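Annual report, structural modelling task.

Input specification for the iron/sulfur cluster complex:
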Amino acid sequence: MESGEEMISPGLRRRYLRESESVLVPTRAAPFRSLSSLQRAQRACTRCEQAGFIPHAHPVLSGHAGQRVLLVGQAPGPVEQDQSRPFAGRAGRQLMRWLIRAGFRDEGDVRERIYMTAMTTCFPGRRPDGAGDRRPSAAEVALCAPWLDGVLALLRPQVIIPIGSLALERFLPSRRLDDVIGPAYTSNGIPISGRPEAAPVLVPLPHPSGQSRWLNDPARLALLDRALGTLREMVAWADPDG
Ligand code: SF4
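The model returned the following structure:
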């Protein structure tokens, strides 16, 4: 059984469809019958290479149908590209430490239970000044958006974790990290207090990269602590058998 449609229980599906008017989750039929067929096509994608944005396309993503948590980062880095595995480098190790604080047993548990993708799934290259990885352009994000739309439609995640400001712009547009890190949100951006009534819920996190200066402020570390506590509660709600 490989289709996300087939893996989800009728109860969860009804709960999810209550939010089907959301602008964040595409309601049109996915062009692929299953996540595995979408992944095969995505891994063969060369749109950004053909458009001249990157020298070589090498899409990096991981996951399978039935996972209830979707994590959306900015873009893979060189280590992720080499290993064909999301969050495999230093930022990934920091992310794993955060997720263990949020209740996951270990990295294996994280990778087994979370579908991992990004706003653009190919390494965008280094910045011209050499200070870190290049932030993907709006044009690259637009080229890659149909893949993310397809994952949302087929996986129907219960919890979505946008990581960093680029993913935040997609899921909670026009909000600043400082203003959103801590609580969970409905897919329409309304803060949730108590038990969620509908899926998906959003739990944004800052980017774990050492390049991010956001985490240098102790007050922000307190926001991160709160967000990881929120994530623990939302994952327990979405995946009680996890
Ligand atoms: S970033 Fe996305 S759209 Fe661009 S080549 Fe890679 S998979 Fe295709």
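The domain at 4-238 is CATH 3.40.470.10 (Uracil-DNA Glycosylase, subunit E).
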